[in-house]
Amino acid sequence: MKKTLKIASLVVLAGLGTASLGSCKKTEKIKASGDIDVSINYKGTVQSGVSYNGTTTKTLTSGVTLQKGDITPTWKCFGEKLTALSGNTVTIREGNDYSTKEYKNDWANYNTKGFVSPTGEQLDLVMGDSNMYTTAVNSGNLTSIDDKLDSMPNFKKWVDNHEAIWNSMKSNDGHVYFTPYFDGLDSIEEMQVMNTKFVELLLDTNDGFDTATTITSVYTPTVKETADQEVTVGTGDNKNVAPKKVTVHITEANNAVAKQNALTTKNGATLVQALKEALIAEYGDNLAKSAGGRAEGDAVIWNKLSELFTGVKATYTTDDMVALLRCVKANPVKLTGKQQEMNPLVPRTAEGKRTIKLNSLIAWWGHKGMDSENGKLFFDEDGTLQDARTQAGTYDGLEELGKLYQEGLFVKNYTQDSKGTAGGKTEFRSAMMMNGTAFMLYDYNATSSVYNHDAGQAGNTNENFNYQPVLAPIVKWSSKDLNYKGVNLKDKYFRFSESNRTLKSGGWAIPTTSDNVDSALALMDYMFTEEGARIQDFGPDDGHYWTAGKLDGFADDQPIINADLLNDVNTNGTYTWNDYYRIYIGSTQGIGHVRHDALDMQVTLGQSAKAGIANVKAAISADVEILVQSSVNTANTSRFFQSVPTNIPLNADEETKAAGDAVKGFTKIWNTSDAEPACIKYVMVGDKALDVENGFKSRAEMEAAFDACNLNYLASYRHEVKSVLGK
Description:
- The chain contains 25 helices and 22 strands.
- By secondary structure, it is an alpha+beta fold.
- The strands form eight sheets. A five-stranded mixed sheet has the order 4-1-5-19-6. A four-stranded mixed sheet has the order 10-13-7-14.
- The longest helix has 20 residues, at 706-725.
């Protein structure tokens, strides 16, 4: 049965990425020669692409002087590299005059007037996105590349290692028409960003705690173990994490929440004392005696209590975290110097697409789907495709979050911004981080750590700010057999995140009218070599832009931006780093390649945030925290640890079922375009958030519709996902 015609429904993401590419060592001559006409058009104060489009002369720290119309250093370098590899002269030429606002506007002309440059040259490579490719494919205007992989050995190596992503790039005719772009691949995207200074003030000091602020407990312990547990701890540092298995006493008798709930008076002082006692009981065998523990010498893993929540050694349960949130709530004077309302959990804004990020915290109770790369789809312990919207566990998790909301651990009425506007864009984050009342977000690291007491960051002079990414809690994710690299994690506590970067909406393609297909393929392929990717992201490899060196969070040498260039990027006063690189150097995000983690690590983050993300990255590299992967070897790893492909093409009958009446109620509940989405209000008011408008009056009524929805909707996706996965 014919599949619906569409290129992959690509997910747009942002933040950190990584490069996982083929070898850059080539011994055979490649097929390339002549001119490659390239059309790239980025919207900005100065539109940018292959050539410099500024009106003033710019001299770079490399000594290169640019005037309007000059080919930028990166693209000039690409021509030189292909010349050397082919033995023929290859030149990159500008194929756009930037007369339209951006590349999206170019495509209307391309599909009606032909893929030609302003000077009448036939274009060889064009930048676009999935919707543009669909139109062009329907019109027969793009060249398929799947039958040309023999001419793209480095890209083919990447394809062989990423079968699911490759299959999701196919159109209905089975062909692929573009090379993909990734801000990063198999690299963590969103995470917990915490003010670690607050943790140190609460757990590593012994006086000054508040007694004026109290809480009324609603949340009850969910960790109810009766026996000791074995967990993996990351020892060492973010340059070299060594996993170590240790026994911890995270039993019901030692539970931090239980100890706090038993208090007669729950204020800042008593809550902290109860938490400290619990942590020492749970982890004291490996906590230094100087911090109240029982360990000496080589037995010491944690030198102070705060290390249980921060750094590569972080080891805490969900209940430990809830107990810490309570301590933050009840200690405003201790933490900020004045009596004010503390907000332990904070969204960026009241917009649905922002507030739903906090729903991702249902992972604290072992529930998947909130960070899926495709809707709310995920693979369960049995490897079966599920939708979090029709899982009872999802709503159990939201109700646990609701208990935290009732305790005041969330921003009050966070579906309304500070002006009382439902779904408004006024930031909670910036104001609350700057005045010290925010403790933790679940968001992008780069955009959530700019308020630290780092040089040049937001003018903040409060030394009690140190927002850093932190590791996930240890959670018992499955009571069933769960294989990870040959180890059964059944009934085991481990750290896990499903927030993995994958396919973005951009890429580039070859028009059928190209008069230099071989050279276009060669340039596409070169982007998937380590050398080509580094030049694409950092500029030419002539020593004037970057040199290889050590970077925290990475085991191997990485491109280190030269200090004088980085200073020019950070002090130019006009452009963001992304604009700077695009306009002056020509390093372009959005075309077919995998962007390096090392780029964002150097140009977007303050020192504190760099250290934090290096901790998380190093922990993931050492499997101390497990990150869901774009593909897994199912011979030794459960499908549970694989992200759902970003596109699962359905045939016409399946699409009809997937859009049927049984699905509409859940679509409405989880529609984050609504001013106050029911899936977010559910945390605040429980099933009162359900109403006639979304078709369900109660949770019981909603659960009764799970099976009908799954039969019409999920069954179709389960059938088709097998073709995407190739198994």
